Task: inverse folding
């Protein structure tokens, strides 16, 4: 029997899908990438933006055809959209067999087994702490990656006014430090060299859901990072996403002291206007954000930043937008995910008119993207002539004669492989050329960029 899992949305969803694949595989399911070949189809969905929901709905609607002549097929909708719309999904998608929310994902294998014996539509939507430990499984079968993901917290308590996550993923819960470290150790034994720690607010790890950031000399998340950096075989540690105000002096010190913690920090800014930040229920000002960035820049030479920005939040004026642009320029982000505001029913900001016209959101989006492209090119060009340490990922998909890898600062580097090089090696290459997307080592011929 074959299972197909399609994932929408964030890295947390990707990680959940991997854990579910691991659980199904342990029960004898073969995981397939081909939807036409599957006996079980699972859609792991996202509700963060309306567009993500619409995309998943369209696809699942289309899956009805697969059941013609193959009635034994089971189709399920899981994750944020399942939690958000619950049993209502059975009206819109009558051909689906189950809806499984975010709080009980670990129940998937049992649910599927019960459906194979007794076909009636089922919705499991309650919350359970068991999901925390239940989701620690990995799909080691046939794994040949050097990258691993570990979810360290689930849910969110911050209630930013535009965001649906606290409603669909529930209250913030942290896993135990011991469980997380064991899981990273297990990944290292399976050849993982770089681990990504995941959570809606990773930096709140170990704080029992309290939303006031800890004192400056405290950071349970920092202590976890410091211990993870000691695990043999793990060469790099990344994390996403931390809420800015949890960057205490202790956390900054841990990052400075441990070069295995990558020198690229994703730090969601959302807006550079204090008025808009307040309306977003983000508990910091642009000045506070810059203070954290500057402390990090001082303590960790060469550190770079990426961010999330929302343009067109209700009431965002040209002046507010310019404030965002100014903060972005001052930080000098290497990368940014720019989102056009979309009201999510049930959130606080959805009660306020979505009054920035779509064309204006698009215009602001394009301006920030253009700033970013210009800056990335300048940053990359500044690295020409330097020697960079790269984690070798293997042949590039575009041109297998070249290998690719990334620097600690998350920059993609193309280089020519040499005798004896292995995937997962940390290698040093000299940068000869740069585009806004990639760096090119001096050992590849000066061919046109591809
Ligand atoms: N509209 C647009 N972007 C949103 N995000 C979250 N909610 C919304 C929304 N309603 C963005 C935020 C967050 C990222 C994951 O998605 O920037 O950091
Ligand atoms: Fe959403 Fe804010 Fe929580 Fe991030 S911190 S998941 S934006 S509520």
Result:
């Amino acid at each position: 029997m074959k299972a197909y899992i399609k994932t929408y949305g964030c890295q947390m969803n990707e990680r959940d899908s991997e854990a579910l694949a691991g659980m199904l595989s342990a029960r004898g399911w073969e995981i397939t990438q081909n939807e036409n070949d599957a006996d079980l189809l699972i859609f792991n969905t996202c509700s963060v933006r309306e567009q993500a929901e619409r995309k998943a709905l369209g696809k699942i609607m289309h899956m009805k055809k697969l059941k013609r002549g193959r009635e034994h097929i089971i189709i399920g909708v899981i994750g944020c959209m399942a939690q958000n719309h619950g049993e209502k999904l059975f009206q819109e998608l009558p051909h689906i067999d189950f809806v499984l929310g975010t709080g009980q994902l670990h129940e998937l294998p049992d649910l599927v087994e019960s459906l194979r014996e007794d076909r009636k539509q089922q919705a499991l939507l309650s919350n359970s702490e068991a999901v925390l430990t239940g989701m620690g499984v990995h799909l080691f079968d046939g794994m040949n990656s050097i990258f691993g993901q570990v979810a360290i917290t689930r849910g969110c308590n911050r209630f930013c006014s535009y965001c649906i996550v606290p409603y669909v993923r529930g209250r913030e819960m942290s896993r135990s430090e011991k469980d997380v470290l064991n899981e990273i150790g297990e990944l290292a034994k399976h050849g993982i060299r770089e681990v990504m720690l995941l959570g809606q607010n990773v930096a709140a790890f170990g704080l029992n859901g309290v939303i006031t950031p800890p004192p400056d000399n405290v950071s349970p998340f920092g202590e976890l990072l410091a211990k993870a950096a000691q695990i043999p075989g793990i060469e790099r540690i990344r994390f996403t996403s931390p809420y800015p105000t949890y960057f205490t002096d202790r956390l900054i010190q841990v990052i400075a002291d441990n070069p295995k913690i990558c020198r690229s920090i994703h730090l969601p800014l959302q807006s550079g206007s204090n008025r808009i930040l307040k309306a977003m229920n983000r508990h910091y000002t642009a000045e506070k954000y810059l203070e954290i960035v500057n402390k990090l820049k001082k303590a960790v030479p060469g550190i770079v930043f990426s961010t999330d920005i929302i343009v067109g939040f209700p009431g965002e004026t040209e002046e507010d937008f310019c404030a965002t642009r100014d903060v972005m320029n001052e930080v000098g982000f290497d990368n940014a995910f720019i989102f056009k505001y979309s009201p999510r029913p049930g959130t606080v900001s959805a009660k306020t008119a979505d009054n920035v016209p779509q064309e204006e959101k698009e215009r602001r989006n394009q301006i920030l993207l253009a700033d970013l492209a210009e800056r990335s090119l300048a940053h990359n060009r500044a690295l020409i002539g330097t020697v960079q340490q790269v984690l070798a990922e293997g042949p590039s998909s575009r041109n297998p004669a070249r290998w690719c890898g990334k620097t600690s600062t998350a920059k993609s580097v193309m280089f020519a492989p040499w005798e004896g090089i292995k995937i997962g090696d940390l290698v040093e290459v000299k940068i000869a050329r740069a585009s806004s997307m990639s760096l090119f080592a001096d050992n590849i011929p000066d061919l046109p960029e591809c």
Remarks:
- The longest strand covers residues 387-395.
